[in-house]
From TrEMBL:
Protein name (record): Peptidase M50
Pfam families (alphabetical): Peptidase_M50B
Listed transmembrane segments: 12-31, 82-104, 110-126, 133-150, 156-174, 195-224
Keyword Transmembrane recorded: yes
Entries under PANTHER family matching the protein: OS02G0221600 PROTEIN (PTHR33979), PEPTIDASE M50B-LIKE-DOMAIN-CONTAINING PROTEIN (PTHR33979:SF2)
Species the sequence originates in: Lentzea guizhouensis
Keywords linked to the UniProt accession: Membrane, Transmembrane, Transmembrane helix
Length: 227
């Protein structure tokens, strides 16, 4: 049983960091900057699945407008290509759920180390200057928090990161569909999946949305249930 003081501390961390992450996603002026982290997770998801399905990863680019590109070589169609295309929009949310799971099992430092390793692996494959700077700055922040920050700051940062991935995984799916309504994204991941599978692009956008919302609900329940 937690003491009243400790319980109050846990509640403040959980809700305070959730609010901070929500503002980082909801405020457009802030989102233009913080969305770069979601792009890193998005392109990292493409890259990871490309490698896991036996495709040859050629490189990753991250751009200042928060767009990105991951290029891999292999069969132009088939399960490997489908899973690689599917991974982008689902990666931030699934990574957020994994982060929440580690936090609730008191593995915050492990979560930070996994993130650092993930970023280091991506850095090897980055093929443009902005992308290199983005990875170095993000990785440097995680390195400092992991090894030099106080336990209180480290815990708060881990919560913010988990909440941000969970919340930040939802908004890009909505933005994608808005662009599709305006015919501004003819070569989106959803449209590529439609070409690969014959399933309409809207079906894939719906799947992206279901995964992101399910991860938010599940991950949020884990974080809130911690106290």
């Amino acid at each position: 049983m937690l003491s009243d003081e400790l319980l109050t501390h846990e509640v403040l961390i959980t809700w305070g960091t959730a609010l901070a992450a929500f503002l980082a996603v909801a405020l457009s002026a802030v989102w233009r900057l913080t969305r770069n982290v979601i792009t890193i997770a998005h392109e990292g998801g493409h890259a990871l699945l490309a490698v896991l399905t036996g495709r040859r990863l050629s490189g990753i680019k991250l751009h200042s407008d928060t767009s990105g590109l991951t290029v891999s070589r292999g069969k132009p169609r088939g399960p490997g290509m489908v899973l690689t295309a599917l991974a982008g929009y689902t990666a931030p949310s699934l990574l957020g759920f994994g982060a929440a799971l580690l936090i609730t099992n008191d593995q915050i430092r492990l979560m930070l180390w996994i993130t650092i390793a993930f970023l280091a692996a991506m850095l090897v494959m980055i093929r443009n200057v902005f992308g290199v700077l983005s990875i170095i700055v993000t990785g440097g922040a995680f390195f400092f928090i992991s090894f030099y920050a106080s336990p209180e700051v480290r815990d708060a940062a881990a919560y913010v990161f988990a909440w941000f991935l969970l919340l930040g995984g939802v908004r890009p799916v909505w933005e994608l569909q808005v662009k599709r309504w305006r015919r501004q994204a003819p070569r989106s991941d959803a449209d590529q999946l439609a070409w690969l599978t014959g399933v309409p692009a809207l079906g894939w956008v719906t799947l992206f949305g279901l995964v992101s919302v399910a991860a938010l609900i599940g991950g949020g329940a884990l974080l809130l249930g911690r106290w």
